[in-house]
Amino acid sequence: MSGFDLVVHGGHVVTPSGVLSIDVGVRDGRIAAIGQLYPDQAAEAIDATGLFVLPGIIDTQVHFREPGATHKEDLETGTRAAVLGGVTAVFEMPNTDPLTLTAADLQAKFDRAKGRAWCDHAFFIGGAAENADELARLERIPGCAGVKVFMGSSTGNLLVEDDATLERIVRNGTRRMAVHAEDEPRLKERRHVADEARHPRAHPLWRDETVCLKATQRLLGFARKHGRRVHVLHVTTAEEMELLAANKDLATVEVTPSHLTLVAPDCYETLGTCAQMNPPVREMRHQNALWRAIAEGVVDVVGSDHAPHTLEEKAKPYPASPSGVPGVQTTLPLLLTAASRGKLSLERVVDLLCHGPQRIYQIAGKGRIARGYDADFALVDLQAWQELKDEDMGTKVKWTPFAGMRVCGVPKVTVVRGKAVMRDGELLGTPQGRPVRFAETISPS
After folding, report:
1. Mean pLDDT in the chain?
2. Is 183 designated active site?
3. How do beta strands 177-180 and 230-232 pair?
4. What structural domains and CATH numbers belong to the chain?
5. Catalytic residue among 120, 305, 351, 376
6. Best label site of 5, 135, 248, 301, fewest CB within 10 Å?
């Protein structure tokens, strides 16, 4: 025995050099060898025959609702859903109750996650008027994913709607800043559209293309002025994609599986408020633009924007109904299904879900199957079809907007730092997730 803790053998491994029929040896939670290995060389072996071995998925936008709204999700159930979907690391958002605004708030989340999180995790610090001058220090705390700004109102009370505060936040820090770009003044002006319609089909009319475009224009103006790298989340419009394509030196781009899959107005008629999210699902013209931006390399990341609410909450009459849908468990199957239909390659799936997050956020040691990297893997059967069902979801709210959809590409095994935590839909062992490491963070002074 050569001292490997684990050998994954017999699979098709998606490496930076392409898809190779090789084995992977793991020691002390990291990839120690790639090549022809044998099961008896390790204390444990995983037979990956017939499976594709992907790097573990990194979901850089999830809302796990802890603290403050744990009746609909918490760090244990959210990360449970994550590993069921092949996700090995998550970035959790700061619009909790209380908001994540201070070093103490960050530490409280890490304390809550210890011994309860099934996968590795990082937490965003919220950008707000009260902490704007401290963000350059706060964003450097180990395990902090960076700063997140809400330019438009959504779930929670974290909102930066004025230019003065936004500019203070942009200039106070150097790490890439994640932004929900909707223009709050225009949202207030157009609220009557939703109030008068009283049906979620009005959601993309209220939160229209201009709401998003104006916010992104404002953001890019300050980013250009101060040389700040920004990451524009859940982009939904053709117009924004054109603008962002012209500003790729500063701006990176995320889209969500929901906006790549659901189409207005049909989704609002069939799903009602269960298709309601911010920014909204839009018509086919915009969805086509998102797929074109993926093909052209404008999009850097696909993130789930996992944002669960209970069905009872979603049943409130629109627009009192909350925006957001679950998604961390279904991201990989939805992207693999799109790949099976020729919309993108398997390598591009891995780029969007693994390499892209690592690149833009400077994650240390994740996102690739390469020597020295964390041994995070998602083993998937690309020939298997399954029907997505509410009862199979690990999320606490137990529903998905994609229920009834048949998807191709089933996560069979999830490995986090060399430990199998999910096999065939069953969790293994106990939660042992750790904080994600970043190349750009330093210890707090």
Report:
1. 96
2. no
3. parallel
4. 4-53+371-427 (2.30.40.10), 57-361 (3.20.20.140)
5. 305
6. 248
